[in-house]
């Protein structure tokens, strides 16, 4: 559990990123000395401690009991992957042992590692890294997927290291960390076994160090390579920092809207003259297409300032063969409004938050709609909708809320003429916590993977933009020393550099080929799982047959 807490400290808010290079090996070492289901238990406990610490912000959701249940349930679920990792890694340990029901003794570990060949030890370390990535791939897609705090995202400020994501996605960084941590643990056991021969145990870490060095060289060249940029787009990003309790309070709708309008007027009066005004997810308290006063106020705003506007708002659509006014589907949407005050595009969020935006299994268990906060919830959108603007001539792709932590979702939306990604998010659910930084850390990789900027407009942090190499810009409000809180009320005027007009972006290897690395690791992991369960079932069947024949 201490190892799991150490891993949690590698992520925001602690951000001791170096711990991510050793924590996987420490968690795996906790499986030494036990066997069978105890291996799984050791990994699960480490993962449970990690998840409880990393996802503490769930407790800040303003509900009385549900956040506690959700916090424990989500932590227990994520811990399953840690338990599976520790069990599977030790189960394939190449020491020739066939009967894992024997006692697995800690003090024998040095001798067991020493009895292996160098190639066996190196192969095992590689497999451990592969299995880690394979399980992350499964976690990111199973059910609705939860790729939050993938191991690689802990390095979001380590620009040279994370450039490998342009080839492998974030999963390549996760592999490096897990592989290095296990190799370090192996070197520890070899040092205990061959303490009088330092060359032997030092050799265990040489191969990973060489690969990390090559990754650093690749990353440094990529970071230092000057981009071909000759134009910018100026954007006003409004951050109202509205508490979630006020978002739900219908009596505060007018005040919320007036606050947004006032912040926008100040932003649009800025000497830099923004070309695009952006409001975050769920900023608008009313349905844009159905509330005439709201639509009129926004129309007046954009016409007066001759500005494009992108905003987040709920939307509704009557169902097919609707029988009443209540028979409608609701969508978490974003809209593009041109300077003439016309809605020219709408995007509907596709990756909904379970229990927050929809209730899983409610179709088959209707009472859940009344027991859980999401109730009927939203309906998911069906496709990506690029927003094309004129004067400025830019094209952007929208991601709402935590859609920007799904590598495959962002990749599928990006085309060679996409100028930047735009994420509208709320995050007001979690107060002023680590959730906002963890979310931003994941978003950094979408910029690196696809080789283009990502702009984030949040209700209460982190409103900023990320360049195509993953560096965060304009994170803090104001110029005071120390900087003002990232959770403050305000606006930012940002200048996002773009490729020359008409020049198509050169796609990254990841953007062209997708999760080739992650799927390869997942295939190996599933094959190993099938082999272990299959061989275990066959041995158990043989044992029963022998027992029956003797009887």
Structural category is: alpha/beta
Low-confidence regions: 98-103
Shape: globular
Characterize the largest beta sheet: strand count, sense, and whether it forms a barrel: 6 strands, mixed
Strand order of the largest sheet: 5-4-3-2-1-12
Please indicate the percent range of residues in DSSP E strands (runs of 2 or more): 5-15%
User: How many extended strands?
Assistant: 12
Q: Would you tell me the overall average pLDDT?
A: 89
Rounded Rg: 26 Å
SSE pattern, N- to C-terminal: HHHHHHHHHHEHHEHEEEHEEHEHEEEEHH
Distance between the termini: 46 Å
The helix count comes to: 18
Helical fraction equals: 40-55%
> What's the number of domains?
2
Topology, pairings included?
Layout: H1 2-8, H2 23-29, H3 37-54, H4 66-91, H5 109-115, H6 118-139, H7 159-162, H8 165-168, H9 170-193, H10 198-224, E1 231-239, H11 244-247, H12 253-268, E2 276-278, H13 292-305, E3 308-318, E4 328-337, E5 343-348, H14 368-371, E6 387-389, E7 394-400, H15 407-413, E8 420-425, H16 434-450, E9 454-458, E10 464-466, E11 472-473, E12 490-498, H17 509-513, H18 516-550
Parallel strand pairs: 1-2, 2-3, 7-8, 8-9
Antiparallel strand pairs: 1-12, 3-4, 4-5, 6-7, 9-10, 10-11
Helix pairs in contact: 1-2, 1-3, 2-9, 3-4, 4-6, 5-9, 6-9, 6-18, 9-10, 12-13
How would you explain this protein's 3D organization?
There is one protein chain. This protein has helices at residues 2-8, 23-29, 37-54, 66-91, 109-115, 118-139, 159-162, 165-168, 170-193, 198-224, 244-247, 253-268, 292-305, 368-371, 407-413, 434-450, 509-513, 516-550; strands spanning 231-239, 276-278, 308-318, 328-337, 343-348, 387-389, 394-400, 420-425, 454-458, 464-466, 472-473, 490-498. By secondary structure, the chain is α/β, with parallel strands linked by helices. The protein has 2 domains: 2-225 and 518-543, no CATH class; 231-318 and 384-502, Carbon-nitrogen hydrolase (Nitrilase/N-carbamoyl-D-aminoacid amidohydrolase, 4-Layer Sandwich), CATH 3.60.110. The strands form 2 sheets. It has a 6-stranded mixed β-sheet. The model is unreliable at 98-103 (pLDDT under 50).
